[in-house]
Amino acid sequence: MSRRGQIVMTDEEVRAFLDSSKTIILTSIGPGGYPHPMPMWFGLDPDGTVRMTTFRASQKVKNLKRDPRVSLLAESGEEYAQLMGVVLYGRAQVIDDLEVVTQTLISVTARGGPPMDAAARAGMAKVVAKTAAKRICILVEPERVVSWDHRKLGGTY
Predict the structure, then answer these.
(1) Residue 34 has pLDDT above 90, yes or no
(2) pTM for the structure as a whole
(3) CB-based contacts of 149, cutoff 8 Å, min separation 6
(4) Strand 69-76 and strand 23-29: pairing?
């Protein structure tokens, strides 16, 4: 088996890794054709769709409206033997709907915390209402996934 084959993550490992990550790098295509990488807090739907919000007038939104192709990177590790990461490739959908933005903000903000009941969600909706009105939602359904977990090599290079 190739070394590449040894380090690839299973679907379950990819999901667990993304569930443990708070920030993902959204890379869109800038106006001059150069990559435009930006760190984003994100939510992850049960079907694997990644959701984020950003301000309507941001460069990311301009880029995505011109060309929806994106890559998303989550990574960790300080030493080669500990490197882990996932790259998701897909097309971003920009959604300008206050309810979708509000629910996305709640999802992203509450990520990693205890489950929220209806009262807690309603309270959080009030907290994010002011910023939600200035934002849009970005959804990315992964079309291709690339992953690596160097820990699977057992410390060998």
Answers:
(1) yes
(2) 0.91
(3) 7, 8, 9, 13, 17, 83, 84
(4) antiparallel
